[in-house]
Design brief:
alpha/beta, Rossmann fold, five-stranded parallel β-sheet, 7 strands, 15% strand
Length: 197
């Protein structure tokens, strides 16, 4: 079994890419969903996040995600501390999940693979890219937030130029190059890779 990390910047379209991968019959683990679940159900994580952000960060057992976003997207050190609490648990959950799958390729969708060094844990990685202005417009429409808010979130992540040299494959989601054709080609290469190594 080969593990494949799928990542991309905010509003790059990685959700579209993983939906296609699922439709092609491959299992996908969603790290961001798992992180949300862990942050509200893992008692130790809850306590550590309260220590980091204050008791008020939870209301009726639910994490105030808007407040977290406001804090961490302005403070990289705080983002790193939060990641250090949550990411090891997410990684362990992925490893357990992988062992229950019956596919020679398993995929892990995660927002920040390169920034955290987590890409080293995968056999291959797929980076989804899109032009900056297109990403800004998509995020403003999707999240109903201002351009300034989107830019602040985008600048908390690495730019594509930093990630591209580290990625095994790059999918261009620019609304010109057909995404399905790119993914099918990558899957074909991954299938060959998984059976030959």
């Amino acid at each position: 079994m080969k593990t494949i990390g799928v990542t991309g910047g905010i509003a790059s379209g990685k959700s579209t890419v993983v939906r296609i991968i699922q439709e092609l019959g491959y299992p996908v683990f969603f790290s961001d969903q798992e992180a949300r679940l862990i942050s509200e159900t893992d008692e130790r994580v809850v306590e550590e996040l309260k220590l980091l952000f204050g008791e008020h960060i939870y209301s009726s057992g639910l994490l105030d995600r808007a407040e977290i976003a406001r804090k961490v997207f302005r403070n990289n050190a705080l983002l790193a501390q939060m990641s250090a609490i949550i990411h090891p648990r997410v990684r362990a959950a992925f490893q357990s999940w992988s062992q229950t799958q019956h596919s020679n390729l398993v995929f892990n969708e995660a927002a920040i693979l390169f920034e955290t060094g987590a890409y080293k844990n995968f056999d291959k990685t797929i980076l989804v890219t899109a032009p900056l202005e297109l990403r800004i417009q998509r995020a403003m429409k999707r999240d109903r937030v201002s351009r300034e808010d989107v830019l602040r979130r985008i600048t908390s992540q690495w730019v594509d130029e930093q990630k591209i040299p580290m990625a095994s494959y790059v999918v261009q989601n620019d609304e010109h190059m057909p995404v399905l054709m790119q993914i099918e080609k990558i899957i074909q290469e991954l299938e060959t890779y998984s059976t030959s190594s």
